[in-house]
Design goal:
mainly beta; two-stranded antiparallel ribbon; globular; single chain
Length: 292
Amino acid sequence: MCPVRSRVAQNAVRALLPITTWGCAASPASHPTADGAVAPADARADGAVADDGGADGAVADEFLLAWQDDFDTLDDSAWQLQSFTFGGNEAQFTPENAAVSNGILTISLTPNPASTTEPYWGVEMRSARTITYGKVSARMRFATGSSVVSGLVLFYTPYPNCNWNEIDIEHLGASSNSSQLNCQVYLGTPMASCTTSVSPKQDPQVVDLGVDAETDFHQYDIEWTPAGVRTFVDGRLLRTWTAHADLLNLPETVLFTIWASSAASWAGPLTSTSAPTSADIDWIKVYDWQAK
């Protein structure tokens, strides 16, 4: 089980900026074909994307593209690069370890030999815009390295966390073809104010991706509706989560992260070859859920 994020040092965060779109206007979602190409999904004239409800005849969910980033540049009005760490993290986050080149965002884990408490530099970058129910799709390559955790995360970010919502795809670099999927909610009564973050209920599951997540790019999708969370790789369903779905209802930011875990039993032991390493992101698309 992954360590709960407990902020122990954090710089002031810029206020969230109202942003209409980053990139294209509403357009259909896409799904990869068997040869790795991307084929457009069926869409209505109004731009809403219908997700196949399945053979059981369930009502399909629909998602409308809200914004996307193709990472032609690193847009600091769209992303907030953090400078803090948390318990169980051997890395200090720094804006210096995120860079864009040739349409690819690279987030890196590098040695920090000057520190005895956080001997690595890592990255947490947050979207300035939040999502409450919707779909997040990203084409990315995760990082390799024992103890290295790179992820696509949705997280309710006020600190201290007087309530907790989180959805994770966290790749553990000790294994190239498996990742941990997790949904976290607070089961207690949310507080209007607090001085210490609450402890969430975690529901982690390590899944076989069926692909090498570290050498090639793959499309990862998180579909979040009031009914629960579905997670996909290259269009293949990995997990459906419904436990406590009624509590997963807070506005969440989108995070790309890379860090080093101190939990050797979870992410593998730190070794001399754990860093430097990096994860790459080609693009991200974020869709709003359309209630029926």
